[in-house]
Inverse folding.
């Protein structure tokens, strides 16, 4: 059944007419439970990661690692529906930090956590994810036009977290240096697992 | 036909009046060798007034017609007759060369404005690259543009392929130093055209 108001189709065939609803659409939530990876694959488990939207927004909520030792939060792209997470990337990462007792703070570029046309996982939150019970990190990552087969695919992320009584604010940006469509994104820790927290995916446009 | 539930009008006269998302798409402009792309309140279905407290511009696959040029914007207080509003701004970038021989985190003194009426750079550091797969993506937030008491602030973050194949994560912010309402915005490159790409305007409720 459809619904028409004043000549305008409001909804039909199970979907709202484009432009009438909001422009930010919730797609999928993955909740970590001692998870080695969290993966969003287009076409699997109701995930949409194609040309339906111009932009995809991942939000990171209360992510908590299973172990300390400065385990880092990592991300990679797939161009083959999640069979391989190994897309070449050119990236930057810089951060600020401030110690709770006020004795240390800084703003610096992190050479060891960027990538130069590398297929490795990209650090989104490096140098510390504390495993104290109340420590976690939160933030977002925007992925632009992942289905383009003409241009490289840009991403931008910002994460604030806690570790060892430090506040960290990490900024990463870059591009998947491929003209193949990106159709899956995976998140994981450099060591141990994602103990708890959730990642939500939204479509914009 | 309208639809009323428990006294609340959900939809009427062809539009949804409740339960709508807080991010509303207003207008999409697509470049095709365009010298400028302009959003003018009241023209071509564009809304840029007190309807929303915040406006967001999204940049997707912005590709210049020539290399060594920077993506810029300006505002107008006279319906787009002149794009020359006084601004004080700041800009910094993180950059990483694909050859992995250079990284940087720097304030860009050449790309800020001190009470200048010129266009504000949204990309810098080596200028944009025009290779077929190179492009720019990002977001610009502008706050309370209809206010006639305060200055109007903006914040932008873009990621792009710069000349010589840098990945550049660029941050610009500042304020239009006027108590007149802003009612139009224009985007362009410092020289030549916007060869391709899309700019979308959203209102935030």
């Amino acid at each position: 059944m459809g619904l028409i108001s004043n000549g305008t189709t409001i909804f039909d065939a199970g979907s709202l007419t484009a432009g009438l609803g909001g422009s930010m659409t919730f797609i999928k939530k993955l909740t970590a439970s001692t998870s080695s990876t969290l993966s969003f694959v287009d076409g699997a488990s109701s995930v949409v990661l194609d040309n339906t939207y111009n932009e995809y927004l991942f939000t990171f909520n209360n992510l908590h690692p299973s172990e300390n030792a400065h385990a880092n939060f990592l991300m990679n792209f797939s161009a083959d529906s999640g069979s391989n997470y190994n897309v070449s990337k050119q990236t930057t990462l810089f951060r600020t930090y401030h110690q709770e007792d006020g004795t240390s703070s800084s703003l610096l570029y992190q050479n060891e956590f960027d990538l130069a046309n590398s297929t490795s996982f990209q650090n989104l939150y490096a140098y510390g994810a504390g495993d104290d019970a109340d420590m976690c990190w939160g933030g977002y990552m925007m992925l632009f036009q992942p289905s383009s087969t003409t241009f490289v695919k840009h991403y931008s992320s910002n994460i604030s977290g806690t570790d060892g009584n430090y506040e960290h604010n990490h900024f990463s940006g870059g591009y998947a240096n491929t003209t193949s469509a990106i159709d899956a994104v995976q998140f994981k820790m450099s060591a141990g697992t994602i103990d708890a927290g959730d990642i939500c995916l939204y479509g914009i446009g | 036909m309208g639809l009323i539930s428990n006294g609340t009008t959900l939809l009427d006269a062809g539009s949804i009046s409740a339960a709508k998302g807080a991010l509303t798409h207003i207008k999409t402009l697509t470049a095709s060798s365009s010298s400028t792309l302009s959003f003018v309140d009241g023209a071509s279905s564009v809304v840029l007034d007190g309807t929303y407290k915040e406006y967001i511009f999204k940049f997707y696959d912005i590709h210049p017609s020539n290399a060594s040029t920077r993506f810029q914007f300006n505002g107008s207080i006279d319906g787009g007759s002149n794009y020359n509003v006084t601004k004080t701004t700041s800009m910094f970038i993180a950059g990483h060369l694909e050859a992995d021989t250079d990284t940087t985190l720097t304030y860009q003194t050449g790309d800020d404005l001190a009470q200048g009426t010129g266009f504000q750079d949204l990309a810098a550091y080596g200028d944009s690259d025009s290779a077929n797969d190179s492009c720019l993506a990002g977001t610009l937030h502008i706050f309370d543009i209809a206010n006639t008491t305060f200055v109007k602030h903006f914040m932008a973050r873009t990621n792009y392929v710069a000349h010589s194949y840098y990945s550049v994560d660029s941050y610009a912010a500042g304020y239009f130093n006027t108590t007149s309402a802003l009612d139009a915005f224009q985007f362009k490159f410092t020289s030549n055209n916007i060869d391709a790409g899309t700019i979308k305007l959203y209102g935030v409720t």
Chain B touches chain A through 48 residues (CB under 8 Å). The mean pLDDT of chain B is 93.
